[in-house]
Amino acid sequence: GQQLNQSPQSMFIQEGEDVSMNCTSSSIFNTWLWYKQDPGEGPVLLIALYKAGELTSNGRLTAQFGITRKDSFLNISASIPSDVGIYFCAGQLSSGNTPLVFGKGTRLSVIA
Amino acid sequence: NAGVMQNPRHLVRRRGQEARLRCSPMKGHSHVYWYRQLPEEGLKFMVYLQKENIIDESGMPKERFSAEFPKEGPSILRIQQVVRGDSAAYFCASSLSGGYQPQHFGDGTRLSIL
């Protein structure tokens, strides 16, 4: 099946630092989404991207839909302790109501 | 995750028993998706349903697994004769109809098989 390659697998950063993670695919995706999952909970939608080249921000988070439609990145600026969690990229191969393909996640730890 | 309600949150079954997982979508959402997550892994799609219809079940094992989304009531994911390998977190997501509608997830059911 389709796979998304997400990197890095894990990150340890100091509070206040900026963070960058990315997702790549061998296939073209029509939609890219970024979710955050805390322990024992479901994924929470952070940012949704619908157009190639689109750059979208949500507070300290910024994500871009790669121009080739095969990649996306997520940046977190000035990290804080509550940023700790697992960040997942997800893509949809076609527009509309279709299943999501998930990456394996980036586990973020923030050292105060 | 307010909105998509899943229950139970935790379910323990012995091998050979049946597991029933329920999902009530967000108000106004008519599309429901089920995903499975193993430890240290991303979510894997299982099945996509609209009211009374299965749209895509390509990720769901052909045997022992079934899903429904009746006209009234929650969507149900049913696993018959559970085995140890069924132990996982099962998540439900829902979305509105139409293009570019993001999926919103519930907090999942953690299924443990003894």
SSE order and pairing:
The complex is a heterodimer of chains A (112) and B (114).
Chain A: E1 5-7, E2 10-14, E3 19-24, E4 31-37, E5 44-49, E6 55-58, E7 61-65, E8 71-76, E9 85-92, E10 101-102, E11 106-111
Parallel strand pairs in A: 2-11
Antiparallel strand pairs in A: 1-3, 3-8, 4-5, 4-9, 6-7, 7-8, 9-10, 9-11
Chain B: E1 5-7, E2 10-13, E3 19-24, E4 31-37, E5 43-50, E6 53-56, E7 65-68, E8 75-79, E9 88-95, E10 104-105, E11 109-113
Parallel strand pairs in B: 2-11
Antiparallel strand pairs in B: 1-3, 3-8, 4-5, 4-9, 5-6, 7-8, 9-10, 9-11
What does this protein structure show overall?
The complex is a heterodimer of chains A (112) and B (114). In chain A, strands 2, 4, 5, 9, 10 and 11 form a six-stranded mixed β-sheet that branches. In chain A, strands 1-3-8-7-6 form a five-stranded antiparallel β-sheet, with no helix packed on it. By secondary structure, chain A is mainly beta. Helices cover 0% and strands 52% of the residues of chain A. Chain A has no helices and eleven strands. Chain B is mainly β and 114 residues long. Chain B has no helices and eleven strands. In chain B, a hairpin with a 5-residue loop joins strand 4 and strand 5 (43-50). Chain B has strands spanning 5-7, 10-13, 19-24, 31-37, 43-50, 53-56, 65-68, 75-79, 88-95, 104-105, 109-113. In chain B, strands 2, 4, 5, 6, 9, 10 and 11 form a seven-stranded mixed β-sheet that branches. In chain B, strands 1-3-8-7 form a four-stranded antiparallel β-sheet, with no helix packed on it. Chain B is globular and about 40 Å long. The A-B interface holds A 1, 4, 6, 31, 33, 35, 40-45, 48, 50, 88, 90, 95-105 and B 1, 4, 6, 31, 33, 35, 40-45, 48, 55-56, 59, 91, 93, 95, 97-108.
